[in-house]
Design goal:
By secondary structure, the protein is mainly beta. The chain has one helix at 62-70; strands at residues 8-11, 14-18, 29-30, 33-34, 38-44, 55-61.
Length: 85
C-alpha cells in the first residue's frame, strides 16, 4: 500500500488505477486499460527460501524496470514478438 492506498484500484472487474511500487508513479489507465509499459510480478515463494509460504506481487513502471535490469550481471533475454496478444 502507498500511503494507505492499494497499489492497484479496481471498479468492479475493471482496473481504475495502478501505481509503481518502486517510485510511486500513477500509471495512465483509460477505460480499464493500462496505456503504458508496466512490469507485473507475481511470485509464490517455496521451500528453501527465507520467504517460504509467502506470495509477493508488484507493478513497476517501465523507467524503474529499466533501472532494475541495468544492475543485472547477466542481461535479460530479449526476443522480438511477431504478434501482440
Amino acid at each position: 500500500m502507498k500511503g494507505g492506498l492499494p497499489l492497484k484500484k479496481y471498479r468492479g472487474n475493471e482496473v481504475e488505477a495502478v501505481y509503481c511500487n518502486s517510485c510511486g508513479k500513477e500509471m495512465e489507465v483509460e477505460h480499464g486499460i493500462i496505456k503504458e509499459g508496466v512490469f507485473e510480478a507475481d511470485i509464490s515463494w517455496g521451500y528453501f527460501s527465507e520467504k517460504d509460504g509467502e506470495r509477493h506481487n508488484f507493478d513497476m513502471c517501465e523507467e524503474c524496470y529499466n533501472l532494475m535490469i541495468e544492475k543485472f550481471k547477466i542481461p535479460v533475454e530479449r526476443r522480438s514478438l511477431k504478434e501482440f496478444l
